[in-house]
Automatic annotation (TrEMBL), chain A:
Its EC number is 1.12.99.6. Heterodimer of a large and a small subunit. This is Uptake hydrogenase large subunit. Its main location: membrane. Belongs to the [NiFe]/[NiFeSe] hydrogenase large subunit family. Residues 484-504 are annotated as: Disordered. Mg(2+) binds at residues 56, 581.
From TrEMBL, chain B:
This is hydrogenase (acceptor). It catalyses: H2 + A = AH2. Its EC number is 1.12.99.6. It comes from Caldichromatium japonicum. Signal peptide: none annotated. The keyword Cytoplasm does not apply. One of its GO terms (molecular function) is 4 iron, 4 sulfur cluster binding. Residues 61-207 form the NADH:ubiquinone oxidoreductase-like 20kDa subunit domain.
Amino acid sequence: MSSQIANSAQLDRSGQRIVVDPVTRIEGHLRCEVNLDENNVIRNAVSSGTMWRGLEIILRGRDPRDAWAFTQRICGVCTGTHALTSVRAVENALGIQIPENAHIIRNIIQLTLYAQDHLVHFYHLHALDWVDVVSALKADPKGTSEIAQKISDWPLSSPGYFRDIQDRVRRFVESGQLGPFSNAYWGHPAYRLPPEVNLLAVAHYLEALDFQKEIVKIHTIYGGKNPHPNWLVGGVPCAINIHDTGAVGAVNMERLNLVGSIIERTIEFIDKVYLPDLMAIASFYKDWIYGGGLSSRAVLSYGDIPDRANDDSAENQLLPRGAIINGNLNEVHKVDLRNPNEIREFVTHSWYSYTDESKGLHPWEGVTEPNFVLGPNTRGDKTRIEALDEGAKYSWLKAPRWRGHAMEVGPLARWVIGYAKGIPEFKEPVDKTLTDLGLPVSALFSALGRTAARGLEASWAAHKLRAFHQRLIANLKAGNTATANTDKWDPKTWPKTAKGVGTTEAPRGALGHWVVIENGKIANYQAVVPTTWNGSPRDPKGNIGAFEAALLGTPLAIPDQPLEILRVLHSFDPCLACSTHLMGPGGEELIRVRVR
Amino acid sequence: MSTESFYAAMRRQGISRRAFLKFCSLTAASLGLAQNLVGQIAEALETKPRIPVLWLHGLECTCCSESFIRSAHPLASDVVLSMISLDYTDTLMAAAGHQAEAILDQIGEKHKGRYLLAVEGNPPLAQDGMSCIVGGRPFLEQLREVASDCLAVVAWGSCASFGCVQAAHPNPTQAVPVDRVIHDKPIIKVPGCPPIAEVMTSVIVYLLTFERLPELDRQGRPKMFYGQRIHDKCYRRPHFDAGQFVESWDDEGARKGYCLYKMGCKGPTTYNACSTVRWNAGVSFPIQSGHGCIGCSERDFWDKGSFYQHVTDTRVFGIEANADTVGIAAAAGVGTAIAVHAVASAIHRGKQRAGVQHSEGEQV
């Protein structure tokens, strides 16, 4: 039973069906099902978001100045990025300009997230797809030390250091309690690193776990805490006081010094640990070219890290904005989030209903009614789903499309667009990475290419942090210390109705919030989120989303051990709490629950 | 840290077998367990150096897991490698799919009644529980199953403790806190959105060190971290007492670190350790960084009006009505503020003792 899908090869549902649920080492709840042919190659892929929380409906009737706090709780991994998108949307609706310092501090907070989130993704959510922890016990620590010193001048590299790490891991394994490492795929034939490199990666897994918490202290300084720092419509909440009485209660010289030192340590860790590890690991997987999916055909970025304050033009975004379709890298299309014909969401295969499900809706007019129904070919039932029916509704994610195309978003999309536009700071690192590994440009379009783009981006972000920190100091030196514009803080100053759009590039990709404000309250709120793009189910035309496309053609060495599936899915860094949402009339009777 | 068992460690320190069993018995009692479980606890401590922890995820945003790995003392890596056996957590575990699910069964059988259940997020009851599906089943079912044989439950964060954001009005998924579906186990609530990292790891280490639940308040929160208001330990408190308030963002008062009460700070009604332990290894906390507390560890904090409104006649405070009239550090107001504040605190303590109970039948 094979069928032609609009944007991909044949899908063949005849072979053995493999189910992975839960997909772990992601944010949220994701289910994945694939069909294998007789050679254990994936010929059909089904990605299902298995949670929704209804935050958009919860936002209705609330104060728009509070929306950042609600939307920030969409995700605690990419903490802050929804809040930034939200304050941008509200400011856009109400015509609020923010001071230059607030603009810089917001960029610093966003770039801090990039550095920390990408680092955690690489080591703690993705590395174990490539790194065999148990094999590290067989390593010669001297050999690990030699490799470490060859690829980097990071100081923690002595044989004794790696021996201590190895001893610690050995004691842990011999205790018989493997904790997060139990029941995994150690010894799987798809693992290719020599024991010495595995030990290096395990050591850095632990170092990165300890270091990531340092990076986010920048959020704590400017936002009071991490996860979920505090934001402000009109600027940032942290006042600056450099010269005067009471400076200890504000951003002062000591705080700025702390930020500066964290930035330098972050640059060092990413450039001396993360990137060399990425290259070392990639060099053993050069022929594992699977998982490209839509990345060579259809990618989208809204752009982010605006250079000047209060300028949302594409030219002002340091991370480029644009769309590539039909695999034509020579043309980067303009993207307009307000255009009703560009971004539309479909629910043909989503657990929601529209009056006419053959059509998509722009976020301005988006309606959503939850409608959890399992298709006729589902195996199992509501109490235990054995296999989903992808011919019917099968996911809590909607299917967003750009001019009808399913798009990939995220680090690889951003870097492909930067590369296609010929921007040196994107093109040169990509070319150098490919040259160092002896790979053609086509290698970029793979799971590993996606992972490499994320690493390059982490380094880019860390260096940009330094630049913005210096710009803030220069501003302060010039006597500019304003951090908030309160001209329109009072709702009495707002128009009766207002509409706004806010965008960011979240670490995982293009993120947009659309808000409608009426009589000082939120009348409508809609978020279209990176993993909704990447993890989307099919649309009425049969186009498949980025996850499903990337899985096709990937061979599994052992069908029962889905290591390669995890590799491909994790390369996207899925975030399911973000991607499932609800708005519209959800006014069903709430059942009273009896309590003890 | 060595991986010798608790029992071995105790014997090494000269504790007799008999004293050890007595200790197990006390442990059982303090955990609220029947005495027939003493043997099991003894066996666990004799043979198992690290207590198994199963960390389940319902409807949540993973901020609790992220906070947990921010812990500076102890480091999350030390907790995971040396103190507990974190056998299941969607966020960090290497295994996926049925290999991951099998761990729940394995631990459930092998360590029946001897593992901790940590819950991040909460179960939704709408749509037959299918707004949160794990392994093809409603999360609600998984939660009930794993809870049935656990020793105790740690409810991480405001989701598991009180419902949090997805349970805010009108709660479209009917998300409910963990204690609405688990009724027969001790539950420690560690609220906050997220909780402070060191508070999370301290709760774990406390359980391991003292072998009993921490003292809990009437809402099930550890008293040691949730016993006092942020306001009462706030370094900006003298400005409140002196009637010196931030009146507008980035004004003179903001730059001088005045009290954020008029900007909607919920410090006066929030019980948490932010103003003492602070965040991210003590670097700062929301008020220190210029924004009021939003009360994220309090029940229903999303549904108490805007974060920027200071409620002028809350049921626990009289002072607020006066903060406006006290004005911008008016000298005349200073005495008034202090006096009224003292009265307000006394009233508040009285109400606390009276125990304003949340009606349990109502929607969370």
